[in-house]
What does this fold into?
Amino acid sequence: MKHKVTILTSKSCPACPTAKQIWRKIKEKNDFDYEEIDVMSDNGQKIISNEGIMSVPTTIIDGKIIFTGIPDEKKAEDLIKE
Amino acid sequence: MPIWDTIIIGGAAAGLSAAIYTCRKNMKTLVISIDIGGQNLLTEQEENYPGYIELSGPKLMQIFQKQAINFGAEIIFGKATKLEKLDKNFKITMGNGDEYITKTVILSFGKISRPLNVEGENKFMGRGVHTCATCDAPFTKGKNVAVIGGGNSAFEAAELLTKFANKVYLIHRRDEFKADPITVDKIKNKNKVEIIINTIIKKINGEKNVDSLLIENIIDNSTKELKIDSVFIEIGYILDTDWVSNLVKLENRQIITNKKAETITPGIFAAGDVTNSPYKQTITAAAEGAIAGLSSYNYLRSKEGKSTISLDWK
It folds into this structure.
């Protein structure tokens, strides 16, 4: 099954560029669906309301909140390879 | 397993500068870091970093990173949790169990947010417990929140939160504040803010998310449950140096170094905020990183019986 990774970020979040950088790096080496969503966008607002997300960066993998904060690169890549 | 010439722990001004210098000496260099930028990520304008008139901390760090990568540095994102001295080399173990072997180590990881160390803090991290008001303030629209601390960062967080939250409690364990009086006065006059002094947090309660704090007045020892949706911990920063204390000498959690960025263990160097250097500036961190990089190069040369470079302008 092809995994789907969604990372929620905001423009005011200092940790978000690093979190996005990690996922982009993993994406270069692995095949999975990937999207970056700004929490202030309509879609972002919908997701944070539905999932009860209260913090950025947050990574959702296959519909589940997996990382709050900057993800560990190895753990993140291992999950994608599962 | 490859053996690195140097592994640099920490990817901000000191670490990335060190990487630029080690890579330029053709040293096989790995940077291990939880982020790129560290404390610089919180700096809106690096007004005192020479060479740039207007540049944010994150942008400046992106340039450092690009330079380091252009010279050949590799970067791994994660947390190093163990440093061991082997016969000839050093072993670094990551929180995820991965191990790396290196001939030299440069410690340049800086500070982390000081934890409250109360029940519920880790359980609800990101689900009502926050350490970054800039990141998470927009999630508090119409909610009741608490800020813990009495310094400038706590008051600045409280001010930011008044733009979103319904009510902001500022809770401090003393009856006086470290924050600048002008900042304190500004917050005291806000209708949404209630300042609670002489009070500590005993527990953070909730089911899925935070729903209250158990607080204790330290004067009369009375306890009370305070209904809130989010708590922002703003009690300063600490140096996370316990995990290297077996191989370096510490003073107030800072790593003691000499002018060559050397620690008490040959082959381990340190630079930036993590050291006992009296000044914690981006430019001093970058300079210390460069020194640590060159010193690690000299250390390797010396070990291989080659001449070292003590005066590189000669």
About this structure: Chain A has one domain: 4-72. The domain at 4-72 of chain A is CATH 3.40.30.10 (Glutaredoxin). Chain A has a mean pLDDT of 93.
